[in-house]
Input
Amino acid sequence: MRKLIPNKYVGENVFKVDAKDKVLGKAIYPDDIYFEDMLYVKVKRATHPHAYIQKIDVSKAESLPGVIKVITAKDYPHLNKFGLIIKDQPVLVGIGEKTRFMGDALAIVVAKSKEIATKAINLIKVEVKELEVITDPFRAMEEDAPKIHEGGNIVVTHQLNKGDVKKGFDESDVIIEREYKTQHVDQLPLQVESGVAVYDEKTGVITIWASTQWLHDTQADIAQSLNLPKEKIRIIQPVIGGAFGRKEDISVHLHLALAAMSTKHPVKLTYTREESMIAQSKRHPLYIKARTGATKDGILKAWEVEVVGDTGAYASSGPAVVHKGMYHCTGPYNVPNVKGIAYTVYTNNTYGGAMRGFGTTQMAFAYESQMNILAEKLGMDPAEIRLKNAYRIGSITPNGQKLTQSVNVVETIEKALKLSKEKEGVRH
Output
């Protein structure tokens, strides 16, 4: 096992290998790539977050000088849906099909310039039959709520059981119960979603330059969606320009591939910041109901949690994020008896995806708040109750994992206390 070297990085100047190219402007981002005879792509998005599409009139857009091609679902009727865990997101929403959020794509415009393509998408007229818009996951879980997807609005339910939670609460002197709610958060990478694609007519290979965090998964998902073998999809990773989880999901890739195949020209698609906010994933909002029991000495005996995660219009990473959030419901604290249930739920909000922490960040707000409230109820110092219950080597997590290394909770708390004492005006 590699020996940990203390203070090797924290508080030290660390050489960043890609800094020089970025400072000198030599780093190549997707939007920096140009080809001769390159065309520009824009996407017509949904006009209503939950509606059946009755008509898409592209005639005015097609007749605009400089427009090369307008692509809708009828041009590619055999595309498969895509997605990280569940393939539930359409490449293009066609006549008779449903939009499920404002980011759904209805048409792809390919033109000689960005300005012409932007003007053209505003000339596309869409007629819809509006449906109830569900923005609250609790409304989505009601029996009479319209189904956003055919299989129902609860994507998946996960459960967690460790020990005997009833016995744990019976042994507790203090029990507190609170509800918490976290919000959507945008990952906000500096480089918005952007890419360039070229189609080789001789080999049938589509080459895409676009930033992504999972090249091989993205390649496989594009291939299955387009009904092509994986070797026909080549992805080249330029400088990524920030991601923070957001670029695990497909963005420009499929629309670029269709535009390149349709026009036989190099094509570029770069989202505006507004489009990026509407069409790409966010951190999942979690609704957390937590019940915690402890002895009068501050020893945790029982923890029960119910989690409802809003994954928006499509699953993306939702089932894993909400599930993981529940597994971290007790934070870094020993609790012998734990019970949990977590629902991942579709709504008509922008879909949720990966973001740093992957569900644990939202849950930290709940479990640390519970610890503070317990400390106040018991008249204890907040640090003292944390030290009494903190994970140590040999601790067992709520999902049964025995911790055998790299458990530094006690050391971290003690170091934080020591540093705090050195600061003027801090109580510890």
Remarks:
- The chain has twelve helices and 15 strands.
- The chain has a mean pLDDT of 95.
- Residues 284 and 352 are 5 Å apart (CA to CA).
